[in-house]
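We emphasize that the prediction below concerns an isolated chain of 143 residues; any contacts that depend on oligomerization or on bound cofactors are therefore not represented. The input was used exactly as deposited, without trimming of termini.
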Amino acid sequence: MRKMRRSLKKKEGQQSKMNLKIKEVVSYSGHSLSANGSVNLTLKASYSELTSTIKLMQMLNNDVSIKAKIPNGHPMKLGAFRIKQIQVDGDGESKIKFNGLNDYIEMDNLNLLPLNTEETKEFVILMQAEIEEDEEETEEGEN
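Result of the prediction step, given as a token string:
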């Protein structure tokens, strides 16, 4: 169920962009909207998803597009976020906090995410970001 795909695109300045996609099974832990338009979204992931959570570190300081697929529902776009915090407990469960502006976030779709009290707590999210890769890193990988 978890996938990570990479594709390289060469740019003019000898920098390449890598399109990184990570799928993860999570549960919704709430969101908030501030008066200044800032949106915080918190998701929880179990121990079995720890490797996917660690891969998220590559997306730090990049815009992360998040899509959710709720069981018995259609895939929906949640919006563009930045990773605010990744916290791993002693038992391997992780809490992932995202932050974004409500101009780039589908608030109606956030309100459709299943609460922990509902029958289907867990759902799949796809996180996608274009991250820059330095020339040195690609040369080392090719040798």
